[in-house]
Write a structure and sequence with these properties.
Strand content: 15-25%
Helix content: 40-55%
Distance between the termini: 56 Å
Number of strands: 21
Strand order of the largest sheet: 18-5-20-19
Largest sheet: 4 strands, antiparallel
Shape: globular
Number of helices: 21
């Protein structure tokens, strides 16, 4: 029994660690204290007058890093760390805002509430623990018996539960207060159900704002300026960096290709000799996502795979093993497990064509030479010197904040995150290692994020306003058609004016409708018409539409009556969640948040005391 208890404590503790991120301890021995610019009093942010310490944030990031690395089964990239930094920061800011809101509203939690919740409301994940189940169902008696055992205290579970509920109970009290007045009348519930289940079929004539088929329209500079001033939020842009990028390719030689072919031939011979395909794929395939399932790609139809892989797969009989097939990914062996018409159930084994040890060593030596000259330096000229001395290509690329950098169709790990981490103009990155190449970047220019200047967006605004004017110019033609159609039918009126009538299949309010789009006024107009009625002209961004309702299928009231109690519960819960999310967003938008992360990171890079 004690062994079972220990096992349970281990599993529960893992669940708690994952679920309770946010309750971080400030440890003076974290190792960060030895970094000159950072002290126990360094502030990374201030939220409505309350400080968040750099060390708390860094500890939060490290916790998330460990979880993500464990989930991925590898170390994380600099770009992934940047995402985790933002996530940890947001969690810490939200924690501060929530604590401030609890104080403002007088929300607290008692020890008795914590004890009751711990006994009666296990944290997420605990109910799935087999040690707390009887006949496959959660057994709260087993769980409560475990809580009362000495082993629960020894394993730290009780402390973890207390931390969790001390945070979770006030949060739930706040959310209950915020959403307590959410209520849905029977009429409103029926309308929500109808909105999801009504369907229609229409005929329509589209007057599209095609610039090539219409006369030129004029948009004045004053119009452009007014639109810009009235809609500045539309022109918020992330930070942008221009980089010089030097790459050392992992060039593949003929010997490398021959080596990969020899390897795939040997594996094919092994399978033909009686080895299990799935076992060999699990052991050898570099396609790790399918290798864990014995190379299984599941069921697929034509058009899913690259050539010549797809042609080779469809040429196989069930159970037949292909000859080696080369694609841009490497050499494949394919086996069809089942075939039903054009639907195949496939397995494959992939051997990538990579550098041999000798070729890789030569590439590594070159990368080391580049790194010794140019990596991590602040003298811009050293970057150019390394490229010239070693004959390496340099390309200019643009990086956008919070987006990975891609170059020549390939992901360049860490380069974008580095560019926006307080890097100085002219500074070079460390050597970045990717499967296809090594990279070193130099920051040539940096533009802060925010609202783009008018000069940068005026051409886009002008094109937008020109299109709006073209759409407006189409309204009289659409009105003439609509008026004529009401005296006859839409097809008759359209034929008289030489216009084409298009028809839709049946669609709902949220459907993507060919010709009408999705969530457009033209789609919505269909559900405001009576059978056979023709609409007034309906404007969208792309043109003007005249719509006639051909068929309408209302939601089934009998079906609604059957599911009404469950639908009400789901709808109310959804509306409460929406209310809480809106409340949290509003709380964040109205907060005074000073974010010093970039300044601190820049000073850390240059070891300048704050």
């Amino acid at each position: 029994m004690l062994q079972s208890m220990r096992s349970a404590a281990k599993y529960v503790w893992i669940v708690l660690i994952i679920a309770f991120v946010g309750g971080f301890l400030l440890v003076d021995s974290s190792g960060l204290l030895g970094r000159a610019p950072v002290t126990t009093n360094t502030v990374v942010a201030n939220v409505n007058g309350e400080d968040i310490l750099y060390l708390n944030w860094e500890q939060a990031v490290q916790n998330l890093e460990q979880q993500e690395a464990q989930r991925l089964g590898r170390g994380i990239t600099l770009d992934e760390r940047r995402t985790l930094e933002d996530r940890a920061f947001d969690e810490l800011v939200n924690d501060v805002l929530l604590r401030q809101e609890y104080e403002r509203r007088g929300i607290s939690v008692t020890d008795a509430e914590i004890m009751d919740a711990a006994r009666q409301s296990p944290p997420p994940g605990v109910e799935q623990n087999p040690d707390f189940q009887t006949d496959g169902q959660f057994d709260i008696t087993k769980y409560q018996r475990f809580l009362a055992s000495p082993i629960a205290r020894q394993q730290g579970l009780l402390v973890g539960l207390e931390n969790f509920y001390r945070s979770e109970i006030p949060r739930q009290k706040l959310f209950d207060q915020v959403s307590s007045d959410v209520w849905v009348s029977e009429a409103r519930l029926w309308q929500i159900y109808k909105d999801r289940n009504d369907s229609a079929k229409v005929s329509f004539v589209a007057f599209r704002a095609d610039a090539d088929s219409m006369s030129k329209v004029d948009v004045s500079d004053a119009d452009v300026s007014k639109f810009y001033n009235d809609n500045k939020k539309l022109f918020e842009r992330p930070a942008r960096a221009v980089l010089s990028l030097m790459n050392i390719e992992r060039a593949i030689t003929a010997v490398d290709s021959q080596s990969a072919r020899a390897r795939i031939d040997a594996l094919r011979a092994e399978i033909v000799g009686g080895a299990d395909f799935a076992s060999v794929a699990m052991r050898e395939s570099v396609d790790t996502s399918s290798a864990v399932n014995g190379g299984s790609l599941g069921e697929s139809t034509r058009g899913r795979y690259v050539e010549p892989f797809e042609t080779a797969a469809y040429a196989l009989s069930v159970g037949e093993l292909s000859q080696p097939v080369q694609t841009p990914f490497g050499w494949h062996l394919i086996r069809v497990d089942s075939k039903r018409g054009d639907t195949l159930n496939l397995r494959h084994l992939l051997i990538a064509i990579t550098q041999s040890d000798s070729t890789a060593s030569a590439t590594d030596r070159l990368a080391d030479r580049v790194s010794n000259i140019a990596a991590g330096v602040t003298e811009s000229a050293l970057f150019d010197s390394a490229a010239t001395e070693l004959g390496l290509p340099v390309s200019q690329v643009v990086a956008t904040e919070n987006e990975p950098l891609n170059f020549a169709g390939r992901y360049v790990p860490g380069m974008s995150a580095w560019a926006f981490s307080g890097t100085q103009i002219g500074e070079s990155s460390d050597l970045q290692d990717a499967p296809e190449a090594y990279y070193i970047g130099r920051l040539d220019s940096l533009r802060a994020g925010g609202v783009a200047p008018l000069d940068d967006v005026k051409d886009d605004i002008r094109r937008r306003l020109e299109r709006q004017k073209r759409v407006d110019a189409l309204v009289p033609k659409a009105q003439a058609l609509a008026s004529a159609a009401r005296s006859s039918t839409l097809p008759t009126a359209a034929a008289a004016q030489g216009l084409t009538v298009e028809q839709t299949d049946r669609f709902g309010r949220s459907s993507l409708v060919p010709g009408l789009g999705q969530f457009t006024a033209a789609v919505g107009a269909a559900f405001g018409l009576k059978m056979g009625e023709v609409s007034q002209p309906v404007k969208t961004q792309d043109g003007v539409f005249v719509v006639q309702l051909d068929e309408f299928a209302p939601a089934d009231s009998a079906d609604f009556a059957l599911i009404s109690p469950v639908f009400r519960m789901q709808t109310v819960q959804s509306l409460k969640q929406e209310r809480v999310q809106q409340y949290l967003l509003g709380m964040r938008e109205n907060a005074k948040i000073k974010d010093d992360r970039k300044k601190i990171q820049a000073n850390l890079r240059r070891q300048v005391p704050l």
